[in-house]
Specification:
homodimer; Rossmann fold; 5 strands
Chain lengths: 222, 222
């Protein structure tokens, strides 16, 4: 857990609440956290889910291991400390998106249980839904797919600390959703997640979708 | 500029484009970057602007120096290097929100020109609007307001490296918007920004607000 260094900081309340944003977007903010081996199918599912949500006029945004690595986390490498800081920062960003009312789709290997649990704790403390999705397939299957040729490099010793080869993957024990990507179609996987989001009223809740239920204006303080 | 440490990373294209998100939200993403002394009025304007945008059914989200400091940047202090990293990370987060289609409202002292210009460069490279708003008032006025009692502590030597006292504030030379908060009402300030957003078609652009212009569905790749 990162130490709080800055002092003289306090939380500023605004006039527009999280619930106001939820009403505007007609959905609740949430974090869908995909975890699994490289090649397990995290990004593929995230892209398909993003499309499915968009076609329901729901607002989602993908945070991708690769594109975040090229931006905010470009100053982090793959040491254990840097991986932990990587996941911590992404968890904090996901939390901001959730507070904004957006459904963020995070697809990172995120191999360490403690790091994922810290992200869960952040969300629990902020009263935001955290949906851990274990994108599961055997190492043999992932290695056979090897869409980026990374397993081959790792086996050749060209990449060190590669999850599944010379670094552990700690599977979730009680994920909200467990997808066996070697036994399901992509469409089934997306439907399972959509059903979860409906069941938990993140999308489709009656009071967020009622026709003509325009957001009520918020009064300015002055 | 932070060094790119991670290798083997590439950008993942999705099926839902930034323009799709803009159509869904009926606005463009953008970063409104408030800069100015502590007590100049940054947070007050951001809160009022957020309310005004919400009442136009526009989606904004405030990134606040204080609340970001309690989250993603909790492991940063107030040294020059940490301040630079603080602003860099916030700039990257603002960029993500802009790409998502959200208008982010960042209110940070952000005293160093080079740091702000780096955030501007990030936005230019990503083809996202960066609206620098200089929230300007004299040091005497800011110190007289002293809403958090910080100038008093800085004058007493209890806070070191305090902008305006023993650390410089480098004013923007060509900000998109310059607000003299000791000469304007809050309502005037908000109207100036709203007019800017309309003029640059971030909000109110005809093709984003036409009635019954429902977002077109996006085809899934498979």
């Amino acid at each position: 857990m990162a130490e709080q260094k800055a002092t003289n900081v306090t939380w500023h309340d605004g006039e527009v609440s999280r619930d106001d944003r939820y009403r505007l977007l007609r959905q609740k903010g949430a974090t869908i956290w995909f975890t699994g081996l490289s090649g397990s199918g995290k990004s593929t599912i995230a892209v398909a889910l993003e499309t499915a949500l968009f076609n329901k006029s729901k607002m989602s945004y993908r945070l991708d291991g690769d594109n975040v690595r090229l931006g905010i986390n470009k100053n982090l490498g793959f040491s254990e400390a840097d991986r932990t800081e990587n996941i911590r920062r992404i968890g904090e960003i996901a939390k901001l998106f959730g507070d904004a009312g957006v459904i963020s789709l995070s697809s990172f290997i995120s191999p360490y249980k403690a790091d994922r649990n810290e992200v869960r704790r952040l969300h629990d403390a902020a009263n935001l839904p955290f949906v851990e999705v274990h994108v599961d397939c055997s190492l043999a299957t992932a290695e056979k797919r090897d869409p980026k040729g990374l397993y081959k490099k790792a086996r050749a010793g060209e990449i060190k600390n590669f999850t599944g080869i010379d670094d552990p993957y700690e599977a979730p024990e009680n994920p909200e959703i467990h997808l066996r990507t070697d036994q399901m179609t992509l469409q089934q996987e997306v439907e399972i997640i959509i059903e979860y989001l409906k069941k938990h009223e993140i999308i489709g809740a009656r009071h967020y979708t009622r026709a003509n239920d325009a957001p009520q204006p918020v009064a300015a303080a002055r």
